[in-house]
């Protein structure tokens, strides 16, 4: 579980609960090889990126999300080439 820095403790309670329930790897890392943590999917944000981007590069972020957690952002399958070791990963769905 993620631990929020003190400056983020005043977040909306549902957003805070989602962040605390998700696994955000450290900056500069790449996704761990399969298998993912139980009940999680690999997801990333909508920042334009290249397959070799690491966590935090140019604002790119990825995480391991429980897609059934209340308040989780909607996801869609992604084919961008990021994380080739993972047969399926997801991107936050734009509205």
Please characterize this protein's 3D structure.
It is a single chain. The chain has 95 residues and is mostly beta strands. The chain has one domain (6-92). It is 9% helix and 17% strand. It has 1 helix and 4 strands, in the order H-E-E-E-E. A 4-stranded mixed sheet has the order 2-1-4-3, with no helix packed on it. It starts with 12 loop residues before the first helix and ends with a strand. The model has no long low-confidence stretch (mean pLDDT 79).
Side by side, the strands of the main sheet go 2-1-4-3
What percent of the residues sit in helical stretches (DSSP H or I)? under 10%
* SS elements, strand count: 4
> What general outline do the C-alpha atoms trace?
globular
Indicate the radius of gyration in whole angstroms: 13 Å
Look at the structure and give the mean pLDDT: 79
Q: Structural class of the secondary structure composition?
A: mainly beta
Task: Walk me through the topology.
Blueprint: H1 13-21, E1 41-44, E2 62-65, E3 75-78, E4 89-92
Parallel strand pairs: 1-4
Antiparallel strand pairs: 1-2, 3-4
Summary, kept brief:
By secondary structure, this protein is mainly beta. The chain has one helix at residues 13-21, and strands at 41-44, 62-65, 75-78, 89-92.
What brief labels describe this structure?
single chain, 1 helix
